[in-house]
Amino acid sequence: MGKYVIKRIGYMCVVLVILSFIMFMIYSLVPANRAYTDAKAEYTALKNAIPKGKADEYFNEIYLKYQRMYGTDTNNKVVRYLRWVGLYPLYDGTYDGLLQGNLGYSYDYKKPVVQVVAQPMKNTIKINIFATILALGITIPLGIHCAVKRGSRFDQAIQVLTIIGYSLPTFLIAILFIWIFCSKLHIFPPSGMKTPGSNFTGWRRFKDEMYYMALPLIAMTFCSLGGMTRYVRASMIEALSMDCIRTARAKGLREKVVIYSHAWRNALIPIVTLVVGWFLGIFSGSLVFESIFAWNGMGRVMITALRSADYDVVLLMQMFYVGMSLLGTLVIDIVYGLVDPRVRVNK
User: Which of 25, 52, 257, 274 is the most exposed place for a label (fewest CB within 10 A)?
Assistant: First the structure.
Protein backbone atom coordinates (compact mmCIF):
# COMPACT_ATOMS: atom_id res chain seq x y z
CA MET A 1 0.00 0.00 0.00
CA GLY A 2 2.76 2.45 0.93
CA LYS A 3 4.70 1.91 -2.30
CA TYR A 4 1.50 2.28 -4.31
CA VAL A 5 0.61 5.59 -2.64
CA ILE A 6 4.13 6.99 -3.14
CA LYS A 7 4.08 5.92 -6.79
CA ARG A 8 0.68 7.54 -7.34
CA ILE A 9 1.79 10.76 -5.65
CA GLY A 10 4.73 10.88 -8.06
CA TYR A 11 2.36 10.51 -11.01
CA MET A 12 0.12 13.20 -9.54
CA CYS A 13 3.03 15.64 -9.26
CA VAL A 14 3.95 15.07 -12.90
CA VAL A 15 0.35 15.61 -14.03
CA LEU A 16 0.04 18.71 -11.82
CA VAL A 17 3.17 20.23 -13.38
CA ILE A 18 1.94 19.53 -16.92
CA LEU A 19 -1.53 20.94 -16.27
CA SER A 20 -0.18 24.00 -14.45
CA PHE A 21 2.10 24.72 -17.42
CA ILE A 22 -0.82 24.40 -19.86
CA MET A 23 -3.06 26.67 -17.76
CA PHE A 24 -0.30 29.25 -17.34
CA MET A 25 0.27 29.32 -21.10
CA ILE A 26 -3.44 29.72 -21.78
CA TYR A 27 -3.83 32.61 -19.35
CA SER A 28 -0.61 34.22 -20.60
CA LEU A 29 -2.34 34.62 -23.97
CA VAL A 30 -5.02 36.80 -22.39
CA PRO A 31 -4.48 40.51 -23.20
CA ALA A 32 -3.81 41.61 -19.62
CA ASN A 33 -0.56 43.18 -18.45
CA ARG A 34 -0.22 43.72 -14.72
CA ALA A 35 3.13 45.49 -15.05
CA TYR A 36 1.74 47.96 -17.60
CA THR A 37 -1.35 48.65 -15.47
CA ASP A 38 0.71 49.44 -12.37
CA ALA A 39 3.23 51.49 -14.35
CA LYS A 40 0.44 53.50 -15.94
CA ALA A 41 -1.13 54.18 -12.55
CA GLU A 42 2.17 55.39 -11.07
CA TYR A 43 2.94 57.43 -14.16
CA THR A 44 -0.46 59.13 -14.03
CA ALA A 45 -0.05 59.96 -10.34
CA LEU A 46 3.37 61.57 -10.92
CA LYS A 47 2.71 63.03 -14.36
CA ASN A 48 2.82 66.68 -13.26
CA ALA A 49 6.24 66.21 -11.63
CA ILE A 50 7.88 64.74 -14.73
CA PRO A 51 10.10 67.18 -16.72
CA LYS A 52 8.90 68.00 -20.21
CA GLY A 53 10.35 65.87 -22.95
CA LYS A 54 11.14 62.95 -20.62
CA ALA A 55 7.67 61.49 -20.26
CA ASP A 56 8.29 58.47 -22.46
CA GLU A 57 11.66 57.77 -20.92
CA TYR A 58 10.25 58.03 -17.41
CA PHE A 59 7.32 55.74 -18.25
CA ASN A 60 9.63 53.12 -19.78
CA GLU A 61 11.73 53.11 -16.61
CA ILE A 62 8.65 52.63 -14.45
CA TYR A 63 7.34 49.92 -16.79
CA LEU A 64 10.67 48.06 -16.69
CA LYS A 65 10.69 48.26 -12.90
CA TYR A 66 7.32 46.55 -12.65
CA GLN A 67 8.22 44.00 -15.32
CA ARG A 68 11.26 42.99 -13.29
CA MET A 69 9.16 42.92 -10.14
CA TYR A 70 6.62 40.53 -11.65
CA GLY A 71 9.12 38.51 -13.68
CA THR A 72 7.68 39.53 -17.08
CA ASP A 73 10.77 41.33 -18.36
CA THR A 74 11.34 38.49 -20.82
CA ASN A 75 9.30 37.06 -23.67
CA ASN A 76 10.45 33.51 -22.89
CA LYS A 77 7.24 31.84 -21.67
CA VAL A 78 9.10 28.94 -20.06
CA VAL A 79 11.20 31.31 -17.96
CA ARG A 80 8.07 33.24 -16.96
CA TYR A 81 6.37 30.01 -15.96
CA LEU A 82 9.35 28.93 -13.85
CA ARG A 83 9.37 32.34 -12.18
CA TRP A 84 5.64 32.03 -11.47
CA VAL A 85 6.24 28.63 -9.86
CA GLY A 86 9.31 29.91 -8.00
CA LEU A 87 12.02 27.80 -9.66
CA TYR A 88 13.80 30.55 -11.59
CA PRO A 89 15.21 33.77 -10.11
CA LEU A 90 13.91 37.24 -10.87
CA TYR A 91 16.07 40.08 -12.18
CA ASP A 92 17.68 40.69 -8.77
CA GLY A 93 18.35 36.99 -8.12
CA THR A 94 15.49 36.45 -5.66
CA TYR A 95 12.76 33.83 -5.92
CA ASP A 96 9.15 34.89 -5.52
CA GLY A 97 6.67 32.32 -6.83
CA LEU A 98 4.14 29.75 -5.69
CA LEU A 99 6.74 27.73 -3.82
CA GLN A 100 7.72 30.85 -1.85
CA GLY A 101 4.10 31.58 -0.89
CA ASN A 102 3.36 34.24 -3.51
CA LEU A 103 -0.03 33.04 -4.78
CA GLY A 104 -0.90 36.20 -6.66
CA TYR A 105 -2.62 39.54 -6.11
CA SER A 106 -6.25 40.42 -6.82
CA TYR A 107 -6.73 43.75 -8.56
CA ASP A 108 -10.46 43.59 -8.08
CA TYR A 109 -10.26 43.19 -4.29
CA LYS A 110 -6.92 45.04 -3.85
CA LYS A 111 -5.38 42.32 -1.68
CA PRO A 112 -3.54 38.98 -2.00
CA VAL A 113 -5.46 36.11 -3.55
CA VAL A 114 -5.20 34.00 -0.38
CA GLN A 115 -7.12 36.66 1.55
CA VAL A 116 -9.71 36.84 -1.23
CA VAL A 117 -10.56 33.11 -1.23
CA ALA A 118 -10.16 32.41 2.51
CA GLN A 119 -13.64 33.46 3.68
CA PRO A 120 -15.53 32.24 0.57
CA MET A 121 -13.80 28.87 0.99
CA LYS A 122 -15.07 28.63 4.57
CA ASN A 123 -18.60 29.57 3.48
CA THR A 124 -18.58 27.05 0.63
CA ILE A 125 -17.30 24.22 2.83
CA LYS A 126 -19.83 25.05 5.54
CA ILE A 127 -22.94 24.93 3.34
CA ASN A 128 -21.77 22.09 1.08
CA ILE A 129 -20.74 19.77 3.88
CA PHE A 130 -24.18 20.14 5.47
CA ALA A 131 -25.88 19.53 2.11
CA THR A 132 -23.69 16.51 1.33
CA ILE A 133 -24.24 14.85 4.72
CA LEU A 134 -28.00 15.46 4.55
CA ALA A 135 -28.23 14.17 0.97
CA LEU A 136 -26.24 11.01 1.74
CA GLY A 137 -28.21 10.44 4.94
CA ILE A 138 -31.44 10.48 2.93
CA THR A 139 -30.49 8.95 -0.40
CA ILE A 140 -28.55 5.88 0.77
CA PRO A 141 -31.29 4.46 3.06
CA LEU A 142 -33.95 5.49 0.55
CA GLY A 143 -32.14 3.83 -2.36
CA ILE A 144 -31.59 0.62 -0.37
CA HIS A 145 -35.25 0.49 0.67
CA CYS A 146 -36.42 1.04 -2.93
CA ALA A 147 -34.15 -1.75 -4.13
CA VAL A 148 -35.37 -4.18 -1.47
CA LYS A 149 -39.04 -3.24 -2.14
CA ARG A 150 -38.54 -3.15 -5.90
CA GLY A 151 -41.80 -2.79 -7.82
CA SER A 152 -43.86 -1.72 -4.80
CA ARG A 153 -46.05 1.40 -4.80
CA PHE A 154 -43.52 3.17 -2.60
CA ASP A 155 -40.72 2.34 -5.05
CA GLN A 156 -42.78 3.53 -8.01
CA ALA A 157 -43.68 6.80 -6.27
CA ILE A 158 -40.04 7.46 -5.38
CA GLN A 159 -38.96 6.74 -8.95
CA VAL A 160 -41.43 9.29 -10.30
CA LEU A 161 -40.30 11.92 -7.78
CA THR A 162 -36.61 11.30 -8.42
CA ILE A 163 -37.09 11.56 -12.19
CA ILE A 164 -38.84 14.91 -11.72
CA GLY A 165 -36.15 16.17 -9.35
CA TYR A 166 -33.35 14.90 -11.59
CA SER A 167 -34.84 16.44 -14.74
CA LEU A 168 -35.59 19.93 -13.45
CA PRO A 169 -32.76 22.49 -13.78
CA THR A 170 -31.21 23.49 -10.46
CA PHE A 171 -31.85 27.19 -10.98
CA LEU A 172 -35.56 26.46 -11.56
CA ILE A 173 -35.77 24.47 -8.34
CA ALA A 174 -34.04 27.28 -6.44
CA ILE A 175 -36.48 29.87 -7.82
CA LEU A 176 -39.42 27.57 -7.05
CA PHE A 177 -38.27 27.14 -3.46
CA ILE A 178 -37.88 30.92 -3.08
CA TRP A 179 -41.43 31.40 -4.39
CA ILE A 180 -42.86 28.78 -2.01
CA PHE A 181 -40.91 29.43 1.20
CA CYS A 182 -40.40 33.18 0.84
CA SER A 183 -43.23 34.67 -1.21
CA LYS A 184 -46.05 32.35 -0.13
CA LEU A 185 -45.17 30.92 3.27
CA HIS A 186 -42.83 33.73 4.48
CA ILE A 187 -40.68 31.22 6.38
CA PHE A 188 -37.16 31.95 5.12
CA PRO A 189 -35.38 35.01 3.70
CA PRO A 190 -34.80 34.89 -0.09
CA SER A 191 -31.07 35.68 0.00
CA GLY A 192 -28.11 36.79 2.09
CA MET A 193 -25.98 35.24 4.79
CA LYS A 194 -27.11 37.15 7.87
CA THR A 195 -29.59 39.78 9.02
CA PRO A 196 -28.62 43.10 7.36
CA GLY A 197 -26.93 45.44 9.83
CA SER A 198 -26.76 42.81 12.57
CA ASN A 199 -23.71 42.22 14.70
CA PHE A 200 -24.71 39.15 16.65
CA THR A 201 -22.27 37.02 18.62
CA GLY A 202 -22.26 33.54 20.11
CA TRP A 203 -25.38 31.40 19.93
CA ARG A 204 -27.51 34.17 18.46
CA ARG A 205 -25.08 34.59 15.57
CA PHE A 206 -25.13 30.84 14.90
CA LYS A 207 -28.94 30.76 14.82
CA ASP A 208 -29.04 33.74 12.47
CA GLU A 209 -26.54 32.11 10.09
CA MET A 210 -28.44 28.81 10.12
CA TYR A 211 -31.71 30.66 9.48
CA TYR A 212 -30.27 32.24 6.31
CA MET A 213 -28.55 29.00 5.33
CA ALA A 214 -31.70 26.89 5.64
CA LEU A 215 -33.33 27.66 2.28
CA PRO A 216 -30.24 27.19 0.05
CA LEU A 217 -29.40 24.07 2.08
CA ILE A 218 -32.88 22.62 1.47
CA ALA A 219 -32.68 23.44 -2.24
CA MET A 220 -29.19 21.93 -2.62
CA THR A 221 -30.20 18.76 -0.76
CA PHE A 222 -33.36 18.37 -2.82
CA CYS A 223 -31.44 18.69 -6.08
CA SER A 224 -29.04 15.95 -4.96
CA LEU A 225 -31.72 13.41 -4.04
CA GLY A 226 -32.81 12.29 -7.50
CA GLY A 227 -29.53 11.15 -9.04
CA MET A 228 -28.00 9.57 -5.93
CA THR A 229 -31.18 7.70 -4.95
CA ARG A 230 -31.47 6.11 -8.38
CA TYR A 231 -27.76 5.30 -8.39
CA VAL A 232 -27.92 3.52 -5.02
CA ARG A 233 -31.10 1.70 -6.03
CA ALA A 234 -29.57 0.40 -9.27
CA SER A 235 -26.39 -0.76 -7.53
CA MET A 236 -28.34 -2.53 -4.80
CA ILE A 237 -30.66 -4.26 -7.28
CA GLU A 238 -27.61 -5.61 -9.11
CA ALA A 239 -25.98 -6.71 -5.86
CA LEU A 240 -29.16 -8.44 -4.62
CA SER A 241 -29.26 -10.56 -7.78
CA MET A 242 -25.78 -12.04 -7.16
CA ASP A 243 -25.31 -15.73 -6.40
CA CYS A 244 -23.62 -15.00 -3.07
CA ILE A 245 -26.79 -13.23 -1.86
CA ARG A 246 -28.92 -16.26 -2.77
CA THR A 247 -26.45 -18.45 -0.90
CA ALA A 248 -26.60 -16.20 2.16
CA ARG A 249 -30.39 -16.37 2.20
CA ALA A 250 -30.31 -20.13 1.68
CA LYS A 251 -28.06 -20.44 4.75
CA GLY A 252 -30.82 -18.82 6.79
CA LEU A 253 -29.16 -15.49 7.55
CA ARG A 254 -31.40 -12.65 8.69
CA GLU A 255 -32.56 -10.31 5.92
CA LYS A 256 -30.86 -7.30 7.52
CA VAL A 257 -27.56 -9.18 7.58
CA VAL A 258 -28.00 -10.17 3.95
CA ILE A 259 -28.80 -6.62 2.88
CA TYR A 260 -26.33 -4.58 4.90
CA SER A 261 -23.42 -7.02 5.37
CA HIS A 262 -23.42 -8.76 2.00
CA ALA A 263 -25.41 -6.87 -0.65
CA TRP A 264 -24.46 -3.36 0.49
CA ARG A 265 -20.72 -4.07 0.46
CA ASN A 266 -20.94 -5.44 -3.08
CA ALA A 267 -22.98 -2.39 -4.14
CA LEU A 268 -20.45 0.06 -2.66
CA ILE A 269 -17.86 -0.16 -5.45
CA PRO A 270 -19.75 1.95 -8.02
CA ILE A 271 -21.16 4.21 -5.31
CA VAL A 272 -17.77 5.08 -3.82
CA THR A 273 -16.79 7.09 -6.89
CA LEU A 274 -19.87 9.27 -6.64
CA VAL A 275 -19.70 9.71 -2.85
CA VAL A 276 -16.01 10.70 -2.81
CA GLY A 277 -16.66 13.01 -5.74
CA TRP A 278 -19.40 14.67 -3.73
CA PHE A 279 -17.13 15.32 -0.78
CA LEU A 280 -14.38 16.69 -3.01
CA GLY A 281 -16.98 18.91 -4.67
CA ILE A 282 -17.46 20.58 -1.28
CA PHE A 283 -14.44 22.77 -2.05
CA SER A 284 -15.47 23.84 -5.54
CA GLY A 285 -18.60 25.72 -4.65
CA SER A 286 -22.16 25.67 -5.97
CA LEU A 287 -22.26 28.36 -8.62
CA VAL A 288 -26.01 28.43 -9.27
CA PHE A 289 -27.09 28.41 -5.63
CA GLU A 290 -24.43 30.89 -4.51
CA SER A 291 -25.51 33.31 -7.24
CA ILE A 292 -29.26 32.98 -6.65
CA PHE A 293 -29.12 33.08 -2.85
CA ALA A 294 -26.31 35.71 -2.74
CA TRP A 295 -24.04 33.33 -0.84
CA ASN A 296 -20.41 34.46 -0.75
CA GLY A 297 -18.72 31.23 -1.82
CA MET A 298 -16.05 29.91 -4.16
CA GLY A 299 -18.34 29.60 -7.17
CA ARG A 300 -19.44 33.21 -6.92
CA VAL A 301 -15.85 34.41 -6.50
CA MET A 302 -14.80 32.46 -9.59
CA ILE A 303 -17.49 34.03 -11.80
CA THR A 304 -16.72 37.53 -10.45
CA ALA A 305 -13.01 37.03 -11.16
CA LEU A 306 -13.70 35.86 -14.72
CA ARG A 307 -15.98 38.82 -15.43
CA SER A 308 -13.48 41.35 -14.08
CA ALA A 309 -10.44 39.65 -15.70
CA ASP A 310 -8.90 39.02 -12.26
CA TYR A 311 -6.77 36.19 -13.63
CA ASP A 312 -4.53 35.66 -10.59
CA VAL A 313 -7.62 34.57 -8.66
CA VAL A 314 -8.87 32.39 -11.51
CA LEU A 315 -5.52 30.70 -12.05
CA LEU A 316 -5.03 29.90 -8.37
CA MET A 317 -8.54 28.49 -8.05
CA GLN A 318 -8.05 26.37 -11.17
CA MET A 319 -4.80 25.01 -9.73
CA PHE A 320 -6.61 24.20 -6.50
CA TYR A 321 -9.37 22.33 -8.34
CA VAL A 322 -6.81 20.35 -10.36
CA GLY A 323 -5.02 19.35 -7.16
CA MET A 324 -8.29 18.30 -5.52
CA SER A 325 -9.25 16.22 -8.57
CA LEU A 326 -5.91 14.41 -8.55
CA LEU A 327 -6.21 13.81 -4.82
CA GLY A 328 -9.73 12.51 -5.35
CA THR A 329 -8.62 9.82 -7.80
CA LEU A 330 -6.05 8.58 -5.27
CA VAL A 331 -8.61 8.54 -2.45
CA ILE A 332 -11.12 6.66 -4.62
CA ASP A 333 -8.57 3.97 -5.51
CA ILE A 334 -7.57 3.52 -1.87
CA VAL A 335 -11.20 3.34 -0.75
CA TYR A 336 -11.85 0.70 -3.42
CA GLY A 337 -9.25 -1.51 -1.77
CA LEU A 338 -10.72 -0.92 1.69
CA VAL A 339 -14.28 -1.64 0.57
CA ASP A 340 -13.51 -4.68 -1.58
CA PRO A 341 -10.41 -6.78 -0.74
CA ARG A 342 -10.51 -8.17 -4.28
CA VAL A 343 -9.31 -4.81 -5.55
CA ARG A 344 -5.53 -4.82 -5.26
CA VAL A 345 -3.90 -1.42 -4.59
CA ASN A 346 -0.45 -2.59 -3.50
CA LYS A 347 1.15 -2.79 -6.95
Answer: 52
